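>> Question from a student workshop board

For tomorrow's exercise we were told to take the sequence and the ligand below, predict the bound structure, and bring the output to class. My setup keeps failing. Could a helper post the expected result so I can at least see what it should look like? The ligand is iron/sulfur cluster.
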Amino acid sequence: MSVGRLDDVVRVLERELRLVDEEFVARMVYMRTRDPFKALVATIISQNTTEASTARALRRLSELCEISPEALARVPVEAIAEAIRPAGLQEAKARAIRGVAELVVKEYGGDFFRALEGTVEEVRERLMRVSGIGYKTVDVVLMNLGRPVLAVDTHIARVARRLGLAPASGGYLAVQRALQAELEREDPLKAHLLLIKFGRTICRARRPRCGECPLRGECKYYASQLAKAD
Ligand code: SF4
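>> Workshop helper replied:
Here is what the output should look like for this input. Compare the format with yours to find the bug.
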Protein backbone atom coordinates (compact mmCIF):
# COMPACT_ATOMS: atom_id res chain seq x y z
CA MET A 1 0.00 0.00 0.00
CA SER A 2 1.20 3.49 -0.73
CA VAL A 3 0.10 6.06 1.81
CA GLY A 4 0.38 8.92 -0.61
CA ARG A 5 -3.37 9.09 -0.60
CA LEU A 6 -5.76 9.27 2.28
CA ASP A 7 -8.10 6.98 0.34
CA ASP A 8 -5.59 4.15 0.82
CA VAL A 9 -5.42 4.79 4.57
CA VAL A 10 -9.21 4.81 4.82
CA ARG A 11 -9.47 1.49 3.02
CA VAL A 12 -6.92 -0.13 5.36
CA LEU A 13 -8.65 1.24 8.45
CA GLU A 14 -12.04 0.09 7.18
CA ARG A 15 -10.71 -3.47 7.04
CA GLU A 16 -9.19 -3.26 10.54
CA LEU A 17 -11.71 -1.28 12.60
CA ARG A 18 -15.40 -1.62 13.33
CA LEU A 19 -17.32 1.59 13.85
CA VAL A 20 -20.06 1.65 16.48
CA ASP A 21 -22.61 4.51 16.42
CA GLU A 22 -22.48 5.02 20.21
CA GLU A 23 -18.77 5.88 19.95
CA PHE A 24 -19.65 9.16 18.25
CA VAL A 25 -22.42 11.04 20.04
CA ALA A 26 -22.78 13.94 17.57
CA ARG A 27 -23.07 11.47 14.70
CA MET A 28 -25.57 9.34 16.59
CA VAL A 29 -27.67 12.42 17.41
CA TYR A 30 -27.77 13.40 13.76
CA MET A 31 -28.60 9.88 12.57
CA ARG A 32 -31.48 9.61 15.05
CA THR A 33 -32.95 13.10 14.63
CA ARG A 34 -31.75 14.39 11.23
CA ASP A 35 -31.55 17.72 13.04
CA PRO A 36 -28.26 19.53 12.35
CA PHE A 37 -28.87 21.98 15.20
CA LYS A 38 -28.95 19.12 17.71
CA ALA A 39 -25.76 17.77 16.12
CA LEU A 40 -24.18 21.22 16.49
CA VAL A 41 -25.08 21.39 20.19
CA ALA A 42 -23.69 17.86 20.71
CA THR A 43 -20.48 18.86 18.93
CA ILE A 44 -20.03 21.96 21.09
CA ILE A 45 -20.58 19.89 24.24
CA SER A 46 -18.13 17.22 23.02
CA GLN A 47 -15.14 19.60 22.88
CA ASN A 48 -12.32 18.35 25.12
CA THR A 49 -14.32 15.61 26.78
CA THR A 50 -15.28 11.97 26.37
CA GLU A 51 -18.24 10.64 24.42
CA ALA A 52 -19.75 9.30 27.68
CA SER A 53 -19.61 12.75 29.31
CA THR A 54 -21.04 14.31 26.16
CA ALA A 55 -23.97 11.89 26.19
CA ARG A 56 -24.66 12.59 29.88
CA ALA A 57 -24.50 16.37 29.43
CA LEU A 58 -26.74 16.22 26.38
CA ARG A 59 -29.30 14.14 28.25
CA ARG A 60 -29.35 16.67 31.11
CA LEU A 61 -29.72 19.54 28.64
CA SER A 62 -32.66 17.84 26.92
CA GLU A 63 -34.30 17.48 30.36
CA LEU A 64 -33.89 21.24 30.87
CA CYS A 65 -35.47 22.28 27.57
CA GLU A 66 -36.04 21.28 23.98
CA ILE A 67 -32.79 21.39 22.02
CA SER A 68 -33.88 23.94 19.44
CA PRO A 69 -32.76 27.50 18.64
CA GLU A 70 -36.01 29.03 19.96
CA ALA A 71 -35.96 27.16 23.27
CA LEU A 72 -32.24 27.59 23.99
CA ALA A 73 -32.34 31.31 23.13
CA ARG A 74 -34.76 31.77 26.04
CA VAL A 75 -32.85 29.75 28.67
CA PRO A 76 -30.32 31.61 30.88
CA VAL A 77 -26.69 30.77 30.12
CA GLU A 78 -26.22 29.73 33.76
CA ALA A 79 -28.95 27.09 33.48
CA ILE A 80 -27.42 25.69 30.28
CA ALA A 81 -24.00 25.60 31.98
CA GLU A 82 -25.37 23.74 34.98
CA ALA A 83 -27.07 21.17 32.72
CA ILE A 84 -23.94 20.44 30.71
CA ARG A 85 -21.56 20.49 33.70
CA PRO A 86 -20.61 16.76 33.26
CA ALA A 87 -18.83 17.69 30.01
CA GLY A 88 -16.60 20.34 31.62
CA LEU A 89 -15.79 23.86 30.34
CA GLN A 90 -19.50 24.38 30.85
CA GLU A 91 -19.53 28.20 31.02
CA ALA A 92 -17.77 28.65 27.68
CA LYS A 93 -19.79 25.88 26.03
CA ALA A 94 -23.05 27.31 27.40
CA ARG A 95 -22.19 30.75 25.99
CA ALA A 96 -21.52 29.17 22.59
CA ILE A 97 -24.81 27.22 22.64
CA ARG A 98 -26.82 30.23 23.74
CA GLY A 99 -24.96 32.47 21.26
CA VAL A 100 -25.64 30.29 18.24
CA ALA A 101 -29.27 29.79 19.28
CA GLU A 102 -29.73 33.58 19.40
CA LEU A 103 -27.99 34.02 16.04
CA VAL A 104 -30.27 31.47 14.36
CA VAL A 105 -33.41 33.00 15.89
CA LYS A 106 -32.51 36.62 15.14
CA GLU A 107 -30.97 36.25 11.69
CA TYR A 108 -32.60 33.12 10.26
CA GLY A 109 -36.04 33.07 11.89
CA GLY A 110 -35.09 30.01 13.93
CA ASP A 111 -34.41 27.94 10.79
CA PHE A 112 -30.92 26.47 11.17
CA PHE A 113 -31.00 25.04 7.64
CA ARG A 114 -31.03 28.61 6.31
CA ALA A 115 -27.87 29.35 8.30
CA LEU A 116 -26.22 26.39 6.55
CA GLU A 117 -26.87 27.62 3.01
CA GLY A 118 -23.95 28.64 0.80
CA THR A 119 -20.38 27.44 0.51
CA VAL A 120 -18.41 25.81 3.33
CA GLU A 121 -16.44 29.05 3.70
CA GLU A 122 -19.61 31.15 3.93
CA VAL A 123 -21.13 28.91 6.60
CA ARG A 124 -17.88 28.88 8.60
CA GLU A 125 -17.70 32.67 8.49
CA ARG A 126 -21.33 33.00 9.57
CA LEU A 127 -21.26 30.58 12.52
CA MET A 128 -17.74 31.35 13.71
CA ARG A 129 -18.91 34.84 14.67
CA VAL A 130 -20.17 33.08 17.80
CA SER A 131 -17.42 32.77 20.40
CA GLY A 132 -16.65 29.11 21.08
CA ILE A 133 -17.57 27.89 17.60
CA GLY A 134 -14.54 27.06 15.49
CA TYR A 135 -13.72 25.41 12.20
CA LYS A 136 -14.05 21.86 13.50
CA THR A 137 -17.50 22.39 14.96
CA VAL A 138 -18.89 23.90 11.75
CA ASP A 139 -17.19 21.29 9.57
CA VAL A 140 -18.62 18.41 11.65
CA VAL A 141 -22.15 19.72 11.11
CA LEU A 142 -21.64 20.21 7.37
CA MET A 143 -19.98 16.81 7.01
CA ASN A 144 -22.93 15.11 8.73
CA LEU A 145 -25.21 16.79 6.20
CA GLY A 146 -23.21 15.17 3.41
CA ARG A 147 -21.27 18.27 2.38
CA PRO A 148 -17.83 17.47 0.90
CA VAL A 149 -15.71 18.59 3.84
CA LEU A 150 -13.48 16.48 6.08
CA ALA A 151 -13.66 17.79 9.65
CA VAL A 152 -10.39 17.47 11.57
CA ASP A 153 -10.12 16.88 15.30
CA THR A 154 -7.08 16.47 17.52
CA HIS A 155 -6.80 12.70 16.84
CA ILE A 156 -7.01 13.19 13.09
CA ALA A 157 -4.41 15.96 13.10
CA ARG A 158 -1.99 13.81 15.11
CA VAL A 159 -2.46 10.73 12.90
CA ALA A 160 -2.13 12.80 9.72
CA ARG A 161 1.09 14.42 10.90
CA ARG A 162 2.62 11.12 11.99
CA LEU A 163 1.79 9.52 8.66
CA GLY A 164 3.18 12.51 6.80
CA LEU A 165 -0.16 13.38 5.23
CA ALA A 166 -0.25 16.86 6.76
CA PRO A 167 2.38 19.51 7.51
CA ALA A 168 4.09 19.18 10.90
CA SER A 169 3.21 22.75 11.80
CA GLY A 170 0.24 24.98 11.03
CA GLY A 171 -3.25 25.20 12.42
CA TYR A 172 -6.59 23.67 11.55
CA LEU A 173 -6.79 24.87 7.97
CA ALA A 174 -3.28 23.66 7.08
CA VAL A 175 -4.15 20.11 8.17
CA GLN A 176 -7.71 20.21 6.84
CA ARG A 177 -6.70 21.38 3.37
CA ALA A 178 -3.85 18.86 3.13
CA LEU A 179 -6.16 15.98 4.04
CA GLN A 180 -9.00 17.20 1.87
CA ALA A 181 -6.61 17.26 -1.09
CA GLU A 182 -5.59 13.65 -0.36
CA LEU A 183 -9.17 12.39 -0.22
CA GLU A 184 -10.32 11.76 -3.74
CA ARG A 185 -12.83 8.93 -3.67
CA GLU A 186 -13.68 8.00 -0.09
CA ASP A 187 -16.51 9.57 1.91
CA PRO A 188 -15.23 12.38 4.22
CA LEU A 189 -17.50 11.26 7.07
CA LYS A 190 -16.26 7.67 6.90
CA ALA A 191 -12.66 8.91 6.81
CA HIS A 192 -13.33 11.20 9.79
CA LEU A 193 -14.85 8.47 11.97
CA LEU A 194 -12.23 5.85 11.10
CA LEU A 195 -9.31 8.22 11.72
CA ILE A 196 -10.73 9.24 15.11
CA LYS A 197 -11.22 5.63 16.15
CA PHE A 198 -7.71 4.81 14.94
CA GLY A 199 -6.31 7.75 16.94
CA ARG A 200 -8.20 6.72 20.06
CA THR A 201 -7.29 3.05 19.96
CA ILE A 202 -3.98 2.55 18.10
CA CYS A 203 -2.24 5.79 17.14
CA ARG A 204 -2.76 7.19 20.64
CA ALA A 205 -1.22 10.50 21.70
CA ARG A 206 0.94 8.77 24.30
CA ARG A 207 2.45 5.38 23.64
CA PRO A 208 1.02 4.69 20.17
CA ARG A 209 0.67 0.95 19.54
CA CYS A 210 2.98 0.96 16.53
CA GLY A 211 3.75 -2.75 16.86
CA GLU A 212 0.11 -3.58 16.03
CA CYS A 213 -0.39 -0.82 13.47
CA PRO A 214 -1.34 -1.82 9.92
CA LEU A 215 0.10 1.48 8.63
CA ARG A 216 3.55 1.29 10.22
CA GLY A 217 5.30 0.39 6.96
CA GLU A 218 4.27 3.76 5.57
CA CYS A 219 4.53 5.89 8.70
CA LYS A 220 7.08 8.71 8.92
CA TYR A 221 6.89 8.85 12.71
CA TYR A 222 7.52 5.11 13.01
CA ALA A 223 10.47 5.34 10.60
CA SER A 224 11.94 8.20 12.64
CA GLN A 225 11.55 6.21 15.88
CA LEU A 226 13.31 3.22 14.28
CA ALA A 227 16.13 5.47 13.07
CA LYS A 228 16.57 6.89 16.59
CA ALA A 229 16.73 3.38 18.06
CA ASP A 230 19.53 2.35 15.67
S1 SF4 B 1 3.02 3.31 13.14
FE1 SF4 B 1 2.59 4.19 15.16
S2 SF4 B 1 2.71 6.41 14.87
FE2 SF4 B 1 2.54 5.47 12.83
S3 SF4 B 1 0.36 5.52 12.36
FE3 SF4 B 1 0.80 3.54 13.28
S4 SF4 B 1 0.41 3.80 15.48
FE4 SF4 B 1 0.57 5.85 14.56
